[in-house]
Amino acid sequence: MTPGGTLGAPGVVVVTGVGRYLGAHVAARLAADPRTERVIGVDGPESGGEFAELLDGVERIRIEPGSLGGLLADLDVDAVVHLALVTAPDQQHGGRSAMKDQNVIGTMQMLAACQRAPRLRKLVVRSSTAAYGASFRDPAVFTEETEPREVPRGGFGRDILDIEGYVRGFRRRRPDVTATVLRFAPFIGSTADTTLTRYFSQPVVPTVFGRDPRLQFLHIDDALEVLHRSIVEDHPGTYNVAGPGVLSLSQAIRRAGRVAVPVLEPGLSGAAALARNLGFGRYGLDQVDLFVHGRVVDTTRLEREYGFTPRSTAAAFDDFIHAHHGGRVVTRSQLATAEQLVLDGIRQVRAAVRERT
Questions:
Q1: pLDDT per residue as tens, the chain (357 positions)
Q2: Cα(196)–Cα(204) distance, rounded to whole angstroms?
Q3: Angle subtended at Cα 169 by Cα 163 and Cα 171, rounded to the nearest 5 degrees
């Protein structure tokens, strides 16, 4: 297929996860595209109405994941876009157990529903470069064929491996369906609100002493563009989606005008506690390993098959910085608190080492 070629946009599209930013914006773009006849947004019964205005042209349905099968068959759906993934556990809503239920069990139920949908001819699934994990054994650059050197320690990375395994099984059972898997690098940009953007929005940014990992980001608007093209065009296969180029962690922190606070690697969990004590977000092993080892992927396949190149990692990060210019900066009391927490963490690590020896 030629880059950007179209074999006929789907008439009826179901988008899961429309209660979140990514799903809502994908559904809204599809509803505004004259090539798409009907867009149905699906989310759980507890989903709020944060994006109700954006979804004005979308038929919104709140159902349990297990009820999706009947919906797809009854509506003669042509395409399904699966975006209902959770990237980090929320302790107030079931923690890691609820996260795995939504990511893994929810995807299994979605694929089972797609299996029984006779008119379905296109499936687009959100994935992540977290599938490659992050370890000291990693290659300099991952291609789509590179296997992870180690199983990811974090729950999201393990969920992604399970999800992609189920999609491979679906492809074998339904070879008539064009299945596209998009491995997104971490999102960033002026409107993105993620663990990563909250990390760089901290006045004090915990880092690992002696480590300066290479990072890649993806502008959220470019993610939306790639998703839209995946739906209205035919692009079977698995694709890395990231901004060209890299930033080291130290470069990103300097660009953001923040203060880096190095900690010893065994005490990195204490750095996450530091962030919580200062009132900024939550971090899991997926994020910790990324900030220790970094991750860079090759996007040649995406650029060749889609005829599209996302803006560079540096440009995407700069857009995030400009949007947050004039935001919170470190105060003396916050810096004093950070320094004390770091010192306490180092003392704890040293004490643990002495006990083992």
A1: 334 444 567 899 999 999 999 999 999 999 999 999 999 999 887 766 778 888 988 999 988 766 777 788 788 899 999 999 988 777 777 788 889 988 999 999 999 999 999 899 999 999 999 999 988 889 999 999 998 888 888 889 999 999 999 999 999 999 999 999 999 999 998 887 787 888 888 777 888 888 899 999 999 999 999 999 999 999 999 999 999 999 999 999 999 888 887 876 655 555 555 444 444 445 667 888 888 899 999 999 999 999 999 999 999 999 998 887 654 444 455 555 655 655 565 565 556 556 666
A2: 14
A3: 105
User: In angstroms, what CA-CA distances link 338 with 207, 259, 261, 329?
Assistant: 12, 10, 8, 13
Model pTM score: 0.85
Name the token pair of 293: 């080892």
Q: Rounded to whole angstroms, how far apart are CA atoms 296 and 302?
A: 15
